[in-house]
Amino acid sequence: MATFISHSVTETIALGEAWGRTAPAGLVIGLSGDLGAGKTQLVKGVARGLGLTGRVTSPTFALVNEYAGGRLPLAHLDLYRLHGAADILGAGLAEYFTPAGLAVIEWMERWVGEPPDPARFPGRYRQVRIHTLGPGERQIDYEDFGA
Questions:
Q1: How many structural domains comprise the chain?
Q2: What pLDDT is recorded for position 115?
Q3: I need a surface site. Which of 38, 68, 72, 130 has the fewest CB within 10 A?
Q4: Is 103 in a helix, a strand, or coil?
Q5: Could you tell me if residue 141 is inside a domain?
Q6: Contact present, 40 and 57 (Cβ < 8 Å)
Q7: Is the pLDDT assigned to residue 120 strictly greater than 80?
Q8: Can you tell me the distance from the alpha carbon of 81 to that of 1, in angstroms, rounded to the nearest whole number?
Q9: Is residue 26 helix, strand or coil?
Q10: Which long-range contacts (CB under 8 A, 24 or more apart) does 116-125 make?
Q11: How confident is the model at residue 83 (pLDDT cuts 50, 70, 90)?
């Protein structure tokens, strides 16, 4: 497991941007962390790294926002309002767990459990946990699984 300490929103976005520049097709990035921890800021960076120029917003009520026009298409999901596999599958979100491009999923623990079970993904998966250390400061722990 790797750890990154971010001292600002700018540093969190920069980490996401680095990930977006090198992300392979089919990667799922699962994000966990409290409200306001910086999950959407990280996704903004991933989008920037993919070369996407549109505004990235949290899909809390839409469940999924899709962005095209970059190196890979990006699906940004938010599972906050869903409770378990039945809700997630009932909402028709299963296709995003094996994306053609890149999928970044907030509140991933709603799908993979806590502690997370990365075996629920057949392909490449990055588990990310964001901890709030103080105002503007975050500890971002992440680990890659799969081929």
A1: 1
A2: 64
A3: 68
A4: strand
A5: no
A6: yes
A7: no
A8: 28
A9: coil
A10: 116/30, 116/32, 118/145, 118/146, 121/28, 121/97, 121/145, 121/146, 122/98, 122/146, 123/26, 123/27, 123/28, 123/98, 123/147, 124/24, 124/26, 124/27, 124/28, 125/27, 125/28, 125/29, 125/30
A11: confident
Helix (H, G, I), strand (E, B) or coil at 67: strand
d(CA 76, CA 98): 13
Identify which has the larger pLDDT, 86 or 139: 139
28-33 vs 102-106, strand pairing mode: parallel
Q: How far is CA 96 from the centre of its chain?
A: 12
Token pair, residue 40, equals 């959407």
Q: Which two tokens stand for residue 79?
A: 């599972």
> Is the model's pTM score more than 0.85?
yes
Instruction: Please check whether residue 126 lies inside any domain of the structure.
Output: no
Neighbours of 31 (CB within 10 A): 27
